[in-house]
Every structure is written in C-alpha cells, then in structure tokens.
Design goal:
This protein has 608 residues and is α/β, with parallel strands linked by helices. The protein has helices spanning 18-28, 31-37, 48-53, 72-87, 117-123, 126-141, 172-187, 237-244, 246-253, 275-285, 306-316, 327-340, 345-361, 381-394, 424-428, 448-455, 509-519, 558-564, and strands at residues 39-42, 58-61, 96-99, 147-148, 232-233, 258-260, 265-266, 269-270, 291-293, 321-322, 396-400, 413-417, 461-465, 483-491, 522-530, 546-549. It binds beta-D-glucopyranose (2 copies).
Length: 608
Amino acid sequence: MPEPTTSPPIYKDPAQPSEARIADLLARMTLAEKIGQMTQVEKNSVTPKAVAKYFIGSVLSGGGGSPPKNTVAVWAEMVASFQQAALETRLGIPILYGVDAVHGHANLEGATVFPHNIGLGAVDDPDLMFAIGQATAVEMRATGIHWNFAPVVSIPQDIRWGRTYEGYSEDTTLVTRLAVPYLQGLQTPPENWSGGPIYVLATPKHYLGDGGTAFGSSKTINIQPFLLDQGDTRLTEAELRALFLPPYQAAVEAGALSIMASFNSWNGDKLHAHHYLLNEVLKGELGFEGFIVSDWQAIDQISDDYDAAVVAAINAGIDMVMTPYDYKTFIDSLTRAVNEGSVSIERIDDAVERILRAKFALGLFEQPFSDPALVEAVGSQDHRSLARQAVRQSLVLLKNEHRTLPVPKDTPLIFVAGEGAENIGLQAGGWTIEWQGKSGMITPGTTILEGIQAAISPGTQVEYNRFGRFDQVFDASGQPAIADIGIVVISEQPYAEGVGDQADLTLAQADSDLIARARERCQKLVVILLSGRPLVLSDQLPMMDALVAAWLPGSEGAGVADVLFGDYPFNGRLPYTWPWTNDQLPLNIHNAQSGEALFPFGFGLLEE
Ligand code: BGC
Ligand code: BGC
C-alpha cells in the first residue's frame, strides 16, 4: 500500500494532541516565520499585507484602538482582514488579536462596561467575577478577538498611583480570590462551543511587583513625568514574593497561558530583562508553560542600544514582543542576534512553542473568525443586568447619619448636583472608548441621575443642576426651596496609567465648594464619590450626612440608585485603606500607621 500523500499535516488535524501539532508545525517553520510569531504590532502600524509578508504572530489594539467606525461589525471586519492575511501564508498560522478588555470590551461603543476592578474588589464575590469574565469574553468574540490583556493582578500599595483602580485591592489574598475566577470565566468556553479548550485567552499582568513602586522612583522619559508608574519596587525577595507572587501562582495553576511583563523594576533592575524572575521563578519554579508578552514598547527601556535590549529581553524569557510600532527594526534585530549567536535557536523555538500552545488551545486553526451570531450579545440586556448588579454590590457606605440612607422614594424634593450625576464617561473612567477615558456620553448606558429619576415615586420632584445652583427653585411661599435630600456626585476626571499619578489626593476646591453650596439648600446631604481611589475628604466629611464610595461603576450607573433608594442593601467593603490626610500616604494594611486611617481596609457600613 502506498503511503497516503494527501492527508493533512499533523498540525492541521484537530484530532491530534496539541503537543504533537506544535512539534509538527515548529519543524516546518523557517527562522523568519518563527521570529514573526514572536512579533506583536499595533493595528495602525501594520497592514494585512505586511502581516502576511513578515509572518506577524499578533496584532493588538491599544487603549482606544478602535477602527474609524466604532461598531461591532467594523471591529470584526478589521480583525478578520488581519486574520485572513495570516491564513493565506505558507503555513497559515492564525494571528492572536489582543485588546485591553479590562472592564468589559470597553473600547467598543455599545459594549457592556463593568465596574473597574477597584469596585469589584469592594464586592468580593468570586461567582460574580466568573460571570463577568464570561460576559466579557462573549462580547470580545463577537468582534473576532480572543485575547484579553486582563486580569490586572497588581497589588497597589500607594493610592497616588494612576493605576490604583485597575487593581482589585491592596490585599494579595483578595486579588487572588477574584482574579482566578475571572480568568476562568474568560477562558471557559460556553456550552455550544466547538473550538478549543480556551475561549478567550486571559493575561494576568503585570509581572512582577506591579503596584509596589516607590513614590518618586519613576524615571520615565519622553512622556510626561510619572511619579510611581513604571518606577522601582524596592523590597527584599521574601517581601516581593509574599506580596506579589500568589496571584500568578494561582493563575498558572488555573491554566493561564499568557502573562504580561511589567514596566516596573525590582531594586533597580527592569522586569523585562529579569532572567531570574521571568525564566527561573515564573517558568521554572511556577511551571508556567504559556508565553510572556512584553508591555508597550517596554523593551526599549532596557537599554539605549536596541539590539542589546532585544537580546536581554528574549534571553530573560520574553516570548512575544509588543513592539508595538516599529516591528521591522525588531525583526531585523532579533534575526541578527540569532545569526550572531547571542540568542540561541533553542530559545526561539521555546518561545514559538509557547505561543503556538496558546493558539492551539484557543482552537484558532479551526475557528479563526468571529461568530456573527454573537453580535446580539454585545451590550445585551443580560450583560447590562449583570453589570448593574455588580454596581449595586460594589457601593461602600462610609457614613450614614440621621437615617439618611436609604432615601424614601416619596421624598418630596430632591436636589442632585455634580457633573458626574449625568456623565457616562466620568462613571466609566480610563480605558473606556479611549485610553485615557473621556468625559461625556461616550457610550450607551444609564447615568446615576437617570437611575434616581426612575426610582422615585411619581409625586417626587427631582431638580438637577450640575453646579449645585438651585436659586430658581422656590417653595410654596416663594422662598428658595430647601430640598429634603441633596445628592452631590463628586468625580475625578478620567485618567489611565502614569497620567493619573497624583501627589495630592485632597479634594479639589471646586468640589469642596459644590458640597458646601448644596449643603445650604438641603436638609440632609448625600455625597456619592466617583473615583479610581480613595480621596482625602476629611475636611468636607462633617458637611455630609451620608457618604458612598461608588468607584468607577461603568456603563450601568442606575445601579447606584438601586441601593440609594433601598431596593437593595449596601454590600461593599473597602478594598483599600482610606487616609485622613495626604501626608499619611502611602497608607495600607502593610504599614504601621494603618490604624490611623479615616476608614480602615475592609470598612463598610451595612444596612441595620
Ligand atoms: C496606547 C495604550 C498604551 C499607551 C502606552 C497609548 O497610545 O493607546 O494602549 O498603553 O499608549 O503609553
Ligand atoms: C499597559 C498595558 C496594556 C498595554 C496595551 C500598556 O501601556 O501598561 O496594561 O495592556 O499598554 O494597551
């Protein structure tokens, strides 16, 4: 019997074990094809044609990286155009398309935007995390995207850091408890799925020491001066491991196949070139079999000599490089390094194997494109209900005197003030539609004010003025009316990453004035804070009868009203220590003054 010559190669046969498929495919690859797999490019910096020509392994959308028309269909077309090009290459290896769906697929207009992680840390519900992971994954898959640069498993120790809200908590155990079910929610395929064992690839980030940088240690050049972001984490090895390693260990055990390296240094050494922490600890000790992706242009920071930076990063264990712009220089550099022997072919093969492992696990060779049937899941009622539930559960009641909350629905007159009361962008924060986020009605959802208007009894009068000016509202005798309840929404302007690093977290004078103005026109004052971290408001606290931390709730602002008017109880507890004064910072459970907090970690009034 002659050998059958037409049977498909092993790597294309889904019936074969994936390790056999990886080995078969790797044996067929040229050096250029291998290095292409290790290259990740930002979508505006590469064309589909170039993806094919350079065998690019991955394309990403950075923060705000939407197509010109921000709809599900156009996203799906854009991703498919890159995918199609990759499939037409000699070996037809599909690309991985990655995006930061860190609180829902929030670059996409109309997607469900979940509360940022700080709010989910206040909820502390692993089942909810799994459900959010699943909903996010489905909305991503609708656009053909199967790789999420999430969960963030940073453990922020200093709330002056602009990425505080991306972290669930300052407490390691809480972070681990929430990150793992979220990762499983992303990765677990839905019932009718015929692809691979992983539905959407999760990426715990940023490894290692993220959130531990010392104030003032950030030496970032070229961008605006940062205070903590991308700085130096100064701890002994025992401290570093105890504080930051557990979520990675748990994520690896739960099946993580991709981890992002961190911009920060550890005691002066860049993580992106840290052979010991990447190769020995993560891949060796923890047994991580997936791939390590570098962060945005991060390897450029290793050395002024780009070639040296590439060699150091790859030899330290980086498997895929988020170039993100100038991929040709990267490819040339790594090719030269291999030809000169400064990076071994074994290291290249190891990196490619790890990347292919994730691609096979995703079932990309069988199902490279989006499923048009999923379009309806994007921003669906089910997903929005889930997000609204998360909002309700995330609210932390910090003060409640004179039985102010819950507000009776038949309260005759309610004044509402603050731009955050009617602003989806402010309630969603950074990483929403744009990298830095943006104030305004940037994506569909419900505002806090809409929630209030929907919750009250028909006879209740609600007056909204952004600036808290209610001079035109009079009582029956023609005097300026005094509302029974005033609700002031105080909000931070959106920010992301080091742009949000801030030395002084004291409430702005304008906010303080707004609270004072509203105070004069109501009997009881409720303050709702929309913020990515605790703010210093001790001076204003005496003016408030009630104070609620609502974090960055996302698109479903009406969830705030659900609790204000007593349809649901308060539930959240502080995932971060709340300082009295700015001078106390950094203040957290790990330092001696934590007992002197305004509100300690874990604090949250519950309904009697
Ligand atoms: C991108 C972000 C990225 C940032 C890094 C921005 O232009 O949109 O995704 O994180 O640059 O500096
Ligand atoms: C951020 C990462 C993000 C990447 C891509 C970087 O600036 O640090 O968290 O995944 O950009 O947007």
